[in-house]
Each structure stands twice: as structure tokens, then as C-alpha cells.
Specification:
It comes from Zingiber officinale (Ginger). Pfam families: Patatin. Belongs to the patatin family. This is PNPLA domain-containing protein. The chain is built from 16 helices and twelve strands. It has helices spanning about 10-30, 80-95, 115-125, 135-150, 150-155, 165-175, 205-210, 220-225, 250-255, 255-265, 310-330, 335-340, 350-355, 360-370, 390-410, 430-435; strands at about 45, 50, 65-70, 110, 190-195, 200-205, 235, 245, 280-285, 340, 375-380, 385-390. The strands form three sheets. Strands 3, 4, 5, 6, 7, 8, 9 and 10 form an eight-stranded mixed sheet that branches.
Length: about 450
């Protein structure tokens, strides 16, 4: 006797189940996710054509918001990111109706490498009354001024612009005082390469909250992620038990977005409902000079072979592009709604224009031009193509999505983010003396 055919609804559910299993395997392969949720099919019932055991609770209908910033050791490397965030913060303030809105209010995790790490630390360090110490406009103008100063242009001839010179060390001390990783308003991740262990090291607020052995001063963290050359940056944890011999984050992790995604998917204490890539929304900001760094095609100089330093940067850019492509692929059908990458296309702005310009107004015009460009998207082993939207249009769209997520959370009874709290957070000397900055907007 022929067996009765299965109902159409469960059959469609099995197709969705196959997609869920593929997504889990993909996340495991790319990011080490090793905790597939409740694959007990014998007890599963179907809802909307999908097993309930694979459906997250209603609280996880929202998304964890990740900010990732590329960067090298020079302040100019984070200029495009800083201009992008100044524009984003202005849009967030307007859309939310909150004149005091800050970037950190709308993200759950921030990560930055090199100068991008300094920028992330500025935006997420704790100021008076627990609010972010710096606005995106403050950070942008600081990087703009430091990038256009002759002292920093001269410092570029050496191995490092942030951290080693007396002037840059004083700048970092004024920015962060005695604040440590525990003194950030949201989770912060900053990479470096540790010569002591011969492996990448990720400074993390989540680890710092657990104990002093993983808590470091923010100014030293920023100097470490920008370190380069033959002499590593030596630093110790606040309790003196952990020693790091750091080479810059750009060497180990120029594009730290994948590290942040891994952190979220495996940190169930703080992000209990983030199980899959679709549970995330990621803004990844590239460096100001990418795309033209290794290619000496400036028509004013003609074509020549790249220098050794530029070859190193080409290698780093290639790794960053691979990370970008892997993340985009892992989002699958959710890429358009969950992942935005802002990157210069290198067609109109050249490496030397950014690094040798001492005129802040000219730098601002160059950055405005980059934000008005249509972004270049990488396709693994298939080159690059121009996207349909400009960088500015992508930022404006992402700002609207961030505001929608904040509104969803305000109407939800169960939080999808539960951050570790510090019992008695320290206040940096910089925060203690800094008054609330006046709101300024940057039109970029």
C-alpha cells in the first residue's frame, strides 16, 4: 500500500531547515560558531513552515549592531571613517530627534584597528555621567588637524605616527587620561600582534571586566594597535600580570570586522539571542586611501613599481578585501539589509594627496569627494565593481536602520543585549576635566 504523501507545509519547512543548517555550517566555517541551537527535530513543531526549535524567541527579532573601523598607524588612515561617522551621527541626531545623540548610543560593539582603534576608543570611552566622552564631530576634527600638521607628516617618514613620538603620546594621554578598557560605554575590541606569544591579541572590554589581567590603559591600547617597525610596543595589564609586546593591529587584523562578528556570536552572556548572521547588522568602514595605495597610477607622476612599503600595504589591502568578501558571502540573502561597507574607490583621491596635504580645508574637500563616490565592491577572484549607491547614501540608509532598531528595543520587554557592567567604573582624568562639548555638525 502506498504511503500517504507528506503535507506541503512541513515539506516547505524542511527546505527552510536545510537553509538553516547550511547557514550554521557556514558560520562555523567562517567564524568558529560551534553551538547550533536546538537541533532536536523529533520534538520540533512547525510554525510558518519552519521548526520552532530553530526559531529564536520574540526578543531576538532585533539585531546586534556592530561598528568596525579599518586603519593603519597614521591619523590619515582613519579620516574617511571619521568623516563617515560624523555624517552618520548628524543623521542619527536628526532622525531620532535627540540633539545629544552619539554614535555609541546606536551600536552594541565597536572594533577598530590602528588609527581606526583610536577613533573607536574616542567614540566609546566613558565621559561624565556615563555618556560618551567624544562626539564623532570632535573626533573627526582632531584627526583632520593631526593629519594636516607638518609634525605628523614628518613622523610618517618613521615607522609610526601614533604612540612613539612625544607629541602623539601626549595627545593620547589628553584624550584618555588614566581610563582603561573597563571604562568604555559599550564593548570595545582592538587588535594587535603580540610578539610574546607570536599570535594576534585582541584587547577586549568583556575580558577586562572579568579581571585586571586583561584590563589595559586605553592610551596604551591605542598606541599598541598603531605600533610598527622593528621595536615593539611594550605594555602590561593594570595588575601587571599580562605583558604584551605589540606590533600594530594592521599587521594582524587590518579589517577587524570578522573578529567582532566572532565575538558576538560566541558571547552568549552579552548577546544571548545572536545565533546567526541574520541577527547582526554591521557597518564596516575602510581607510581613506584604499584602492590607490599600492598602484602608482597618478598621471602627474607616471607609472612606476611600488616601493617595499607599498607592497606591504598591498598585501594588507588584499587581506582586508578577502575579509570583506567572506563577510558579505556569509550574510547571503541578508547582505543588502544587514551589511554595509564604506570604502574609497581610489579613482580620484590618491595616497599622497591625503598623506602630504597640510591644508585642513583641502583634506575636507577630498573627503567630501570620497563620500560622494560610488563605493567599490570586491568579488573574490573576480575583481571589483562600482556599487549602485554612493557612500553618503549608504550611510543615510544605515542611520535610518539604526534608529528603527532603537525604536524596536524601546518597545520590547526582553533585551537582546545584556552587557557586563563594571561595579565602580573609573573616570579618566580627561573625562573629569572635560566639559560637555558643543554640538557641531560636519557636512561631508
Amino acid at each position: 500500500m502506498a504511503l500517504p504523501s507528506a503535507p506541503d507545509e512541513p515539506a516547505r519547512g524542511l527546505d527552510k531547515l536545510s537553509y538553516e543548517i547550511f547557514s550554521i555550517l557556514e558560520s562555523k566555517f567562517l567564524f568558529g560558531y560551534d553551538d547550533p541551537p536546538n537541533l532536536l527535530l523529533s520534538t520540533a513543531t512547525f510554525r510558518d513552515g519552519c521548526p520552532r526549535s530553530l526559531l529564536p524567541p520574540a526578543a531576538s527579532d532585533g539585531r546586534v549592531r556592530i561598528l568596525s573601523i579599518d586603519g593603519g598607524g597614521h591619523p590619515a588612515d582613519a579620516l574617511l571613517a571619521a568623516a563617515s561617522l560624523a555624517r552618520l551621527e548628524s543623521s542619527l541626531s536628526r532622525l531620532s530627534g535627540d540633539p545629544s545623540a552619539r554614535v555609541a548610543d546606536f551600536f552594541d560593539v565597536a572594533t577598530g584597528s590602528g588609527a581606526g582603534g583610536v577613533l573607536a576608543a574616542m567614540l566609546f570611552s566613558r565621559g561624565p555621567e556615563g555618556r560618551p566622552l567624544h562626539s564623532a564631530a570632535d573626533a573627526f576634527h582632531l584627526l583632520l588637524s593631526r593629519s594636516s600638521r607638518s609634525s605628523f607628516v614628518a613622523a610618517r617618514r618613521g615607522p609610526l605616527a601614533w604612540g612613539r613620538s612625544q607629541g602623539s603620546s601626549e595627545t593620547l594621554r589628553k584624550l584618555f587620561g588614566d581610563a582603561t578598557l573597563r571604562d568604555t560605554v559599550k564593548p570595545l575590541l582592538v587588535p594587535c600582534f603580540d610578539l610574546t606569544t607570536g599570535a594576534p591579541f585582541l584587547f577586549s572590554r568583556a575580558d577586562a571586566v572579568e579581571g585586571g589581567s586583561y584590563d589595559f590603559q586605553l592610551r596604551e591600547v591605542c598606541a599598541a594597535t598603531c605600533a610598527a617597525g622593528t621595536a615593539p610596543m611594550e605594555l602590561r595589564s593594570v595588575d601587571g600580570r599580562t605583558r604584551i609586546a605589540a606590533i600594530g593591529g594592521g599587521v594582524a587584523m587590518g579589517n577587524p570586522a570578522a573578529a567582532a562578528i566572532t565575538h558576538v556570536l560566541n558571547n552568549k552572556r552579552e548577546f544571548p539571542f545572536a545565533d546567526r548572521m541574520k541577527d547582526l547588522m554591521v557597518l564596516s568602514l575602510g581607510s581613506a586611501t584604499a584602492g590607490g595605495i599600492g598602484k602608482e597610477v597618478n598621471p602627474r607622476r607616471g607609472r612606476s613599481l611600488p616601493s617595499q612599503a607599498k607592497l606591504v600595504r598591498i598585501a594588507g589591502e588584499g587581506v582586508d578585501d578577502v575579509v570583506d568578501q567572506a563577510i558579505a558571502m556569509s550574510f547571503g540573502q541578508n547582505k543588502a539589509s544587514n551589511y554595509v561597507r564604506i570604502q574609497s574607490n581610489g579613482l580620484e583621491v590618491y595616497d599622497d594627496d591625503i598623506r602630504k596635504t597640510r591644508d585642513a580645508d583641502k583634506l575636507l574637500r577630498l573627503l567630501e569627494k570620497q563620500l560622494s563616490q560610488k563605493n567599490v565592491e570586491s568579488f573574490l577572484f573576480r575583481g571589483k565593481k562600482i556599487s549602485e549607491q554612493t557612500n553618503a547614501e549608504k550611510l543615510d540608509w544605515f542611520a535610518r536602520e539604526l534608529v528603527k532598531e532603537n525604536q524596536r528595543r524601546s518597545n520590547s520587554q526582553i533585551p537582546n543585549v545584556v552587557l557586563k557592567e563594571v561595579a565602580t567604573p573609573r573616570t579618566s582624568s580627561a573625562a573629569a576635566t572635560k566639559k560637555a562639548p558643543a554640538r557641531t555638525s560636519v557636512s561631508c
